[in-house]
Specification:
Layout (H helix, E strand, L loop, with lengths): L1 H31 L3 H15 L5 H14 L3 H14 L6 H14 L3 H14 L4 H12 L9 H4 L6
Length: about 160
């Protein structure tokens, strides 16, 4: 009798993981079909039920991604910062940091965006996110940029 209860106790976490994975995958399908409102509600509900699962950090990231795609940039920032602050070992750290930069770009806060892009490049130099951050840095307005001589009329030929 004791062996059976032990086996059930061992099986329970696996079943919980299976159910959380199944739930997560179903919500991800909503996201893939661009139903961001449904996906947002689903990922939030996932976090309520499975907030301690191995997929919690990913779900939190996707909450931010839904908010970003819905144009709710302030909410998205909070969600991406939540990943960075509360899930330090998450595989979504680089992606969250990049999305913080992209969100600041959407909000026209170019200085904060630049800082986040630089952080991605510094902390995750070999990642795909670092490559995207480098491209964003190249495209971003330069800080303290001096006007060129062609624009000011103070070139060497004047």
């Amino acid at each position: 009798m004791v062996l059976i209860s032990v086996n059930l106790a061992v099986a329970a976490p696996s079943n919980m993981q299976d159910s959380s994975r199944h739930f997560y995958d179903r919500v991800m399908e909503e996201f893939k079909h661009r139903d961001y409102e449904a996906a947002l509600a689903g990922f939030r509900f996932f976090l309520e039920i499975h907030g301690r699962s191995s997929l919690a950090a990913n779900a939190q990231y996707w909450v931010g991604e839904c908010q970003y795609r819905l144009g709710r940039y302030k909410e998205a920032l909070k969600s991406f910062y939540h990943v960075v602050s509360y899930y330090p070992l998450s595989p979504k750290l680089a992606a969250s940091t990049l999305k913080i930069g992209q969100t600041y770009t959407k909000m026209k806060d170019h200085e904060k965006a630049r800082m986040m892009y630089e952080r991605v490049v510094d902390q995750y130099p070999e990642s795909a996110e670092a490559e995207l951050a480098r491209k964003a840095l190249d495209a971003a307005p330069q800080r303290d940029e001096e006007p060129t001589s062609e624009l000011t009329g103070n070139g060497p030929s004047d």
